[in-house]
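Structure tokens please, single chain.
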Amino acid sequence: MTKLTDIEKKKMRAEAEIEKAKALVTKQQALIKTKEEEVKLLESQYISESLIQSGLTFDEFKSLISDIKAEGDHS
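Here you go.
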């Protein structure tokens, strides 16, 4: 019976470790999502600051992007 009890305890420990690992994965997935959103925000801030520093208006920026896309379509 002692052997069975030991096996049962090991099984319970392994199950507890699985639950801890799942919780850690969930936490890390949330962190990844937060950091991805942070990167997108920083990219938009970079674009905004670039417009300010270059003196481009939003319409000029849109025109520039359209020109770049048109050049890419002709490649």
